[in-house]
Specification:
Blueprint: H1 2-12, H2 15-33, H3 37-56, H4 59-68, E1 72-81, E2 84-89, E3 98-102, E4 106-117, E5 120-127, E6 141-147, E7 153-157, E8 165-170, E9 179-182, E10 189-203, E11 206-221, E12 227-228, E13 239-242, E14 247-248, E15 255-260, E16 264-269, H5 271-274, E17 278-282, H6 289-301, E18 305-309, H7 314-317, E19 322-323, E20 335-339, H8 345-366, E21 372-376, H9 379-382, H10 394-408, E22 413-419, H11 427-430, E23 433-438, H12 444-454, H13 456-459, E24 469-473, E25 483-487
Parallel strand pairs: 14-16, 17-22, 17-23, 18-20, 18-21, 19-20, 21-22
Antiparallel strand pairs: 1-2, 1-6, 2-5, 3-4, 3-6, 4-5, 7-8, 7-13, 8-11, 9-10, 9-13, 10-11, 11-12, 15-16, 15-25, 23-24, 24-25
């Protein structure tokens, strides 16, 4: 009964139906005035059939089908942004689907979502171009054609995006650390997801609770496969797809230590850059700090003397490093060594640094300074912050060590600090670092320090990093900006 009422309303409740009714009345009048009953009956029957035929057919839809072919018909309800349209359709389209919208002209777009509109199901579609390139005015009919091939769209850039970050409306599955690409092939702009949330959105008198995301611009993939960092503002509702299949090799000066998370793009460290400034490896216990530290030692030991100060015994027992001989400080051999000094760590660290600095200074005066790298495992034991010192005079030892560290680069010495918490390690030492490998961290003090290094957006991702996944930033790495990396275990 409801369907019959709707049919009657749509066929006979419109302005054209008044004309059809007038035609029927005129047919009856002609039939009634005829003297020949048979002729009147024929006229009445023919006229009624003509009225029924004209009234029951949706001539507008037939015209649309004839002009643009068969498919799912829809009606434009509104254009609410330069390239975002709302169409009424009898089917629910899948968010993220690529579609062609056939109206007076044809345009490509992406399905944003489905809404419960006033006239039934309403689909929102983001067009590649402005809505005026497809439609003339609201109320026009169209056909929605789903494009089956091509990479699925995972998110659309929406309000709040800037030259360095993208506010995203997910239309596919997203996870923290996923890398998305805007554009195709070389020249693609890469973004990494740093935050996910639920927000309420309002469209055309409807509202829906939907997922939102924040992503940070990593850079633009150039012809050589490098990521060049330059500001770029995505256009409204720019389509972002997964970068999971994207690959790019490292240039020769880098040594691979992993891949950019969510891609197959290799990520590496430059031994020369790493050896020319100080670095830090930060993160909770069990996240892979020591493994990363040993990997960096392996990168450096081919061209420098590398010594790990270790109070745990792990570098000797697990990695098999040879114990360092203090007598070799004046004529160091290239390779990796371990020093396990007895006694109070802050005092022993100060004495060790002084010994190495003295030897390096003498070489510097003769113009033959050999490159040296010093790694502090559990650096907070050797260089504790003043309020975490364990004995009287420890602060003085740490202060002396930090003065040496401040001058060390001049004499060809760089330091790498490995620690679980930034609160317990000397800020005078940590603040001299330029490159950072940051693994999962939860405590607020460390996160506040990390925010000062990588910014608020990337800081949000740190508590959710997986084991052997790190946020890397600094001149030692193949990507100059902060980037989440899946490290080689």
């Amino acid at each position: 009964m409801q369907q019959a009422s709707e049919w009657l309303a749509t066929r006979f409740g419109t302005v054209p139906a008044l004309g059809y009714t007038a035609l029927a009345i005129e047919t009856l009048r002609i039939g009634a005035t005829e003297t020949d009953g048979m002729q009147a009956a024929i006229a009445l029957t023919g006229g009624g059939a003509a009225v029924i035929l004209v009234a029951s057919v949706d001539w507008h839809r037939l015209t649309m089908l004839r002009s643009i072919g068969s498919g799912e018909l829809a009606v434009l309800q509104a254009a609410i942004e330069p390239n975002l349209i709302l169409v009424a359709t009898s089917v629910r389209l899948t968010p993220g689907q690529k579609v062609k919208v056939h109206a007076r002209h044809t345009g490509n777009g992406v399905v944003v979502g489905n809404l419960a509109g006033r006239g039934g199901n309403t689909a929102s579609i983001a067009l590649d171009g402005g809505w005026a390139s497809v439609y003339t005015a609201p109320g026009e009919s169209c056909r929605i054609e789903v494009i089956a091939n091509g990479d699925p769209v995972l998110a659309l850039a929406v309000e709040g995006s800037t030259h360095s970050t993208a506010s995203l409306l997910p239309v596919g599955p997203l996870a923290l650390g996923d890398t998305l690409a805007w554009g195709g092939g070389r020249g693609s702009h890469l973004y990494q997801v740093t935050a996910l949330a639920l927000e309420r959105q309002h469209w055309d008198a409807s509202n829906v609770l939907s997922a939102t995301a924040q992503a940070t611009l990593l850079g633009t993939l150039d012809d050589s496969g490098d990521l060049s960092v330059s500001p770029v503002l995505p256009h409204p509702h720019a389509s972002l797809r997964s970068a999971g299949d994207m690959t790019a090799p490292l240039s020769e000066r880098f040594t691979r230590i992993g891949v950019i998370a969510g891609t197959k793009i290799e990520f590496g460290v430059d031994p020369q850059q790493l050896g020319s400034h100080h670095a830090a490896i930060l993160g909770m216990s069990g996240m892979g700090k020591t493994t990363v530290a040993r990997r960096l030692l392996a990168v450096l030991e081919a061209s420098a003397t590398v010594i790990a100060l270790d109070g745990t015994g792990e570098y000797r027992t697990r990695f098999g490093l040879t114990t360092w001989d203090p007598a070799s400080a004046t004529s160091p051999a290239r390779g990796a060594w371990v020093h396990e000094p007895p006694g109070e760590p802050p005092q022993q660290a100060m004495l060790f640094i002084k010994t190495v600095m003295t030897a390096a200074h003498e070489e510097y005066l003769t113009g033959t300074a050999a490159p040296r790298s010093v790694l502090f495992e559990e650096a907070h034991s050797f260089l504790p912050e003043w309020n975490f010192t364990a004995y009287k005079g420890a602060s003085d030892h740490v202060a002396t060590s930090c003065r040496f560290i401040l001058q060390a680069r001049k004499f060809g010495i760089n330091f790498i600090f490995v620690s679980q918490r930034t609160a317990v390690i000397s800020k005078s030492a940590l603040s001299q670092c330029e490159s950072y490998v940051i693994l999962r961290t939860l405590d607020g003090t460390s996160l506040d320090y990390i925010e000062g290094v990588v910014g608020r957006d990337m800081r949000q991702a740190v508590p959710s990093l997986r084991r052997f996944q790190a946020l890397c930033v600094g001149p030692a790495f193949s990507v100059s900006g902060a980037v989440i990396v899946d490290l080689d275990a």
